[in-house]
Structure formats: structure tokens, C-alpha cells
Automatic annotation (TrEMBL), chain A:
Belongs to the DNA polymerase delta/II small subunit family. Keywords: DNA damage, DNA excision, DNA repair, DNA replication, Nucleus. This is DNA polymerase delta subunit 2. Pfam families: DNA_pol_D_N, DNA_pol_E_B. Its main location: nucleus. GO terms for cellular component: delta DNA polymerase complex. One of its GO terms (biological process) is DNA strand elongation involved in DNA replication. The keyword Cell wall biogenesis/degradation does not apply. Residues 50-176 form the DNA polymerase delta subunit OB-fold domain. InterPro entries: DNA_pol_a/d/e_bsu (IPR007185), DNA_pol_D_N (IPR040663), DNA_pol_delta/II_ssu (IPR024826), PolD2_C (IPR041863). It comes from Hippocampus comes (Tiger tail seahorse).
Automatic annotation (TrEMBL), chain B:
Pfam families: DNA_pol_delta_4. GO terms for biological process: DNA synthesis involved in DNA repair; DNA-templated DNA replication. PANTHER family: DNA POLYMERASE DELTA SUBUNIT 4. InterPro entries: DNA_pol_delta_4. It comes from the Eukaryota. One of its GO terms (molecular function) is DNA-directed DNA polymerase activity. This is DNA polymerase delta 4, accessory subunit. GO terms for cellular component: delta DNA polymerase complex.
Length: 470, 106
């Protein structure tokens, strides 16, 4: 692992007199890299369509997969029915899109309905309640679900197959259900040496308190090999790529003063994001001179809000964009580094599921979306999304080797082994400005470890205070 | 009229001309019809309307008929080939291009 490489040795060159001979040069490993961002391009950008198309395309794409899974699970003679052919009391299987009716879900129609004279709905941490109902929809009809299906874990928009029977009162009693599960995976080539990809997210530049700037500079210095002794520098040379997973700018750069205040009052004030982008450009400039960097946009970054977010524009980075090592990527991100397939988002899809289900752990949700074979099931219901009509680009066609999401509260990682021998590393990349933590993925072993740039971790507050007093 | 409003007609000449041309185009657009072609057109329209109303191929608002056909083909739903041929033949005709619901406001 990376930490072994960078532990100081006896023949450390630190704190010595400068020597005459030249310092050794460590060649940085440069892996084969092929981005596949076309999948998340939006093409002609027509917003005149309704979202019915994306749900229809999703069901069209998922139905054959789920029918196959259902036949595997409940025997090949299982009766797969459409809702319109359903007969009461008959045991059968139905493939459809889940819809969770939630009383607390914010609704623009409720807000603008003047006759009710309601107060605006307060923002909540979670929008689930005991009165929620699960409904399964296919192309023509819908039916309420009851029985052995966990209502609070499910989210709107996931396509599943349910097995059971319709009761006389018109509700469907679920005995079992299945998801599309993991897609097939390509073989990962064996590497002969350790190579790392550094994942970092949530830099939060431009916030009023610059508490993460020291950590950030340490991170940059570590990656570019300007920290530590020769052991650490040779370790840094094995970092072959840096991936920034969104929210490079702080939420506070998005002040809405400009749109609410009078023009003459805000005429001379500069948008907060201008300074933050310049800071980011300087930071990237230090990095791209030494290592290839992928930059994904996130929720607070200056690009389109709806998924898939398009790459940030080159003209915002006058210093760093002249280097071919700067790769401005889309969100979701998909690329192959040394044969290892990376897929991930800046975390909007995961944090949206946190709000609309009982699940709290980002890692658990990441696994759940992989099992559903869908990156963002809650788009377009509660998550902004481009109105696609031809196909749903968020359906996983191929199993990634590394599946990540950014801007998580803590670092977590897990190795997942699929039914057909797929091996996936799940990583939740923590927000850097609050945790000062990034993570390193080893391309050879598919292991992942956090790398922290703070002396004071959350666990040992007392200890660190003692250190200061001494 | 022409003597009184000479100035106005002078300044709006171009606009008036353009309008006249557009109107002439509209009147000219439908080709001279005889009974046979109108029956054939009616049949073709009926066929396309049946395609629009087939729920298996998904919603039809907001996209062209050809786009809807291509999507059905992409997802292996076997849309009828003659519909595609007909749509490609009449590519420039708005009546054929858009679905039955295209005139309704969303």
C-alpha cells in the first residue's frame, strides 16, 4: 500500500546538509487512459420534451434484463405478466417502475396553490413518513404494493420485478422481489507494479473561512513530490492520476444577491465564484504541470445544474488549460485507467436518495444503486435531469471496477463480489474541506486507503489540545 | 387608399411583399389533388395514427415519429418497417413528421 512506500527509512535525506550530487528523479507512471464522456453528453439541448420519455426508455431497456433475472430466480416457468393482464389471486411476476407516494415530498403545485393558503414547506433532512405508499407502474397501469418489500428503502424510479398475487381489494401482495443486479464485467489486466489514482472531492474553495487551505496545499505538494524525503517522493511518483469529484467551489460562492437586490446596488460587486475559480486555476496549475488531472463538476460548480453535468469550460482556467494533462470531465464520470474502469458521480444522486429513503450510509446507497443497475434512480423525480428520450444514459451497461461518489460525510470503502465473479471497489470520497481527507485507489490490487492532511482528527480532540498546550 | 397612405406603404413595402409571398406559398403547398391521391394520403395518415396510438413504443409527444420509431427499434420492440419507409419518403412533410398530438399545447 501507499503508506508503506512513504514511511521514513534510516537513510533519510531529511535534515541533512545539501549534497553536491543531484537528487534522484522519480519518473511518474503514466497509465493508458481513455475517457468515455460521450455517453453523458446531452446533444441538441432541447428542453421541450416531457419526462415521460425517460421513464419509458428506462422501462424498455430494463424489462428484458429483469425478465431474465426473474426467470433465474423463480424458475423459467414463472408467469411474467403485464398489469393489464393481471388476474386476482394468480401467482405471477410483474416488471415495473417503482413510484413512492410521499406526503412530505416538496411539490411546486402545492406551493403555488393559492386557495390552500399554505405556508411554504420547510426543508427537511428526510422526506419519508409512515403514510408513504409504494406503487408499481408499467406502460399502462399502476398498482399499490404491500407485503414483503421494504417501503422505506425503496426509491421512486427504480425498475424492479415483483413476485406475488393481486388480492381482491386491488392491491398486490409482494412475496419476493428482485433487481437487475450487477452487469457483466470485463477482465482487469494484471499490473506489475503499484499505481495509484487519487480521488478528492469537495474542495470548497471561496468559502469565508479558509481552514482547508493548508491541507489543500499539503495535498498538492504531496502529489507533486515536494514533500517528505526520497521515500515519500518515490511514493508520490506512483500516483498516476488525480480525480477531483465535484464541488470544487464552496456553496457560499452561490449567493443569490445578484438576482434579488437592485442592479445599481450590486453593480460593482464581483460574483464570489470569480475569485474561487482563479484560486482553483492556480491550484490546478500546480498539479497539471506534474500529473494528469480529471476535473468533474459538482452541485455548486459553475456549469449546468441538471444531470448529466457537462464539463466546466476551458476558458475559466487560463493558466492550467494550456496543459494537455488537464482533462475537464462530465459528471457522471466514466473512464478507463490502465484497464481499470472508473465510474462515479459527484454525489448528488446519493445524497438525494438519503433524503428520500431510510438509508443513511452513502456506501450502502452506492451498493444499492449498483444492484438496481441505475446510477440515479430518483432522476428526474427529485433530482434534476436532462429530458432524454432515446435511452437512459444512467443505466449501467457494463460493470465498473471502481464505483465512487463524491462529497460524502466520511470516507468509506468496500470490496464487492458479484454473483458472476465481478469485483468492484466501492468508495465514498469524503468532502475535503471538512475532513481534510482524500483517498488513494491502488490500480493493481483494487484496494483503497484514506490519506489525511490534518493533525487533529475528529476522534482525538482532547489529545490534540494537549499537544497545543505543550 | 394608396394615395392617402403613400408614406406607410413605402416604409412597409418589404414586409407586405414577404407576407404576400408566404400566403401564396401556403395556398400552393397542397398539390393539385385528385380523388386517388387523397384516398391514399388518408390511408397513410390512418396508418401513422395507428402507430402513434400503439402504447408499446412509448409516449409520442415532443418527439418526431421517426425518432419514436428509432427508439422502438433500438430497444428491440420490432416497429413495423413500412412506417419507417413511409416516414423517410415524406421526410419534409410536416403532416407526416410529427405525431397526432403535436398540435396540442403541452
Amino acid at each position: 500500500m501507499f503508506s508503506d512506500l512513504s514511511t521514513p527509512r534510516d537513510d533519510s535525506s531529511l535534515l541533512c546538509r545539501p549534497t553536491e550530487d543531484l537528487a534522484p528523479v522519480f519518473e511518474r507512471a503514466s497509465p493508458a487512459y481513455s475517457p468515455c464522456f460521450e455517453r453523458f453528453g446531452v446533444g441538441e439541448r432541447s428542453f421541450s420534451r416531457q419526462y415521460a420519455h425517460i421513464y419509458a426508455a428506462r422501462l424498455m431497456q430494463m424489462r428484458p434484463l429483469l425478465t431474465e433475472k426473474a426467470e433465474q430466480k423463480w424458475g423459467s416457468d414463472v408467469l411474467v405478466r403485464k398489469l393489464c393482464d393481471l388476474q386476482a389471486g394468480e401467482q405471477c411476476c410483474i416488471v415495473g417502475t417503482l413510484f413512492k407516494r410521499m406526503d412530505l415530498q416538496p411539490s411546486i403545485l402545492k406551493e403555488i396553490s393559492e386557495e390552500h393558503n399554505l405556508l411554504p414547506q420547510p426543508p427537511r433532512v428526510k422526506y419519508i413518513s409512515d403514510t408513504d405508499e409504494l406503487i408499481l407502474e408499467d406502460e399502462l397501469q399502476r398498482i399499490k404494493l404491500e407485503g414483503k418489500i421494504n417501503r422505506d428503502r425503496c426509491v421512486t424510479g427504480s425498475v424492479i420485478a415483483v413476485y406475488g398475487a393481486e388480492r381482491n381489494d386491488g392491491k398486490f401482495t409482494v412475496e419476493d422481489f428482485c433487481t437487475a443486479d450487477l452487469p457483466a464485467q470485463s477482465v482487469r489486466p494484471a499490473l506489475d507494479s503499484d499505481r495509484f489514482v487519487l480521488l478528492v472531492s469537495g474542495l470548497g474553495l471561496g468559502s469565508s473561512h479558509a481552514d482547508s487551505m493548508l491541507g489543500l496545499q499539503l495535498l498538492v505538494d504531496m502529489v507533486t513530490g515536494q514533500l517528505g524525503d526520497q521515500g515519500e517522493q518515490s511514493g508520490a511518483a506512483t500516483i498516476s492520476r488525480v480525480l477531483m469529484a465535484g464541488n470544487l467551489l464552496s456553496q457560499s460562492t452561490q449567493d443569490k444577491d445578484g438576482s434579488t437586490k437592485a442592479k445599481y446596488l450590486t453593480k460593482k460587486t464581483q460574483a464570489g465564484s470569480v475569485e474561487a475559480i482563479r484560486l482553483l486555476d492556480e491550484l490546478l496549475f500546480q498539479l497539471v504541470t506534474s500529473v494528469p488531472v480529471d476535473v468533474m463538476p459538482g452541485q455548486y460548480d459553475p456549469t449546468n445544474y441538471t444531470l448529466p453535468q457537462q464539463p466546466l469550460h476551458r476558458c475559466m482556467f487560463p493558466l492550467s488549460s494550456v496543459y494537455p494533462t488537464l482533462q475537464l470531465a462530465s459528471n457522471p464520470y466514466q473512464a478507463t485507467v490502465d484497464g481499470v474502469k472508473f465510474l462515479g458521480t459527484s454525489g448528488q444522486n446519493v445524497s438525494d436518495i438519503v433524503r428520500y429513503s431510510s438509508m443513511n450510509s452513502h456506501l450502502e446507497i452506492l451498493e444499492e444503486t449498483l444492484r438496481l443497475r441505475h446510477l440515479a434512480p430518483t432522476a428526474p423525480d427529485t433530482l434534476g435531469c436532462y429530458p432524454f428520450y432515446m435511452k437512459d444514459p444512467f443505466i449501467l451497461e457494463e460493470c465498473p471496477h471502481v464505483y465512487f461518489s463524491g462529497n460524502a460525510p466520511t470516507f468509506e470503502s468496500k470490496r464487492l463480489t458479484g454473483a458472476d465473479g465481478q469485483e468492484i471497489l466501492l468508495v465514498t470520497v469524503p468532502t475535503f474541506h471538512s475532513t481534510q481527507t482524500a483517498c488513494l485507489v491502488n490500480l493493481r490490487t483494487l484496494e483503497c486507503e484514506p490519506i489525511s492532511f490534518t493533525a487533529f482528527s475528529a476522534g482525538d480532540d482532547d489529545e490534540s489540545e494537549m499537544n497545543i498546550s505543550h | 387608399m394608396t394615395t392617402k397612405n403613400g408614406l406607410i406603404t413605402d416604409s412597409f413595402k418589404v414586409v407586405k411583399k414577404a407576407r404576400k409571398v408566404a400566403k401564396r406559398d401556403e395556398t400552393l403547398a397542397p398539390p393539385p389533388q385528385n380523388a386517388e391521391t387523397s384516398i391514399r394520403q388518408h390511408e397513410e395518415q390512418q396508418k401513422l395514427i395507428q402507430f402513434d396510438l400503439d402504447w408499446r413504443f412509448g409516449p409520442s409527444t415532443g418527439i418526431s415519429r421517426l425518432q419514436r420509431w428509432d427508439r422502438a427499434k433500438l430497444h428491440g420492440l420490432n416497429p413495423p418497417e413500412d412506417i419507417r419507409e413511409l416516414l423517410l419518403l415524406k421526410q419534409n412533410n410536416q403532416e407526416y413528421k410529427l405525431s397526432l398530438w403535436s398540435q396540442y399545447p403541452l
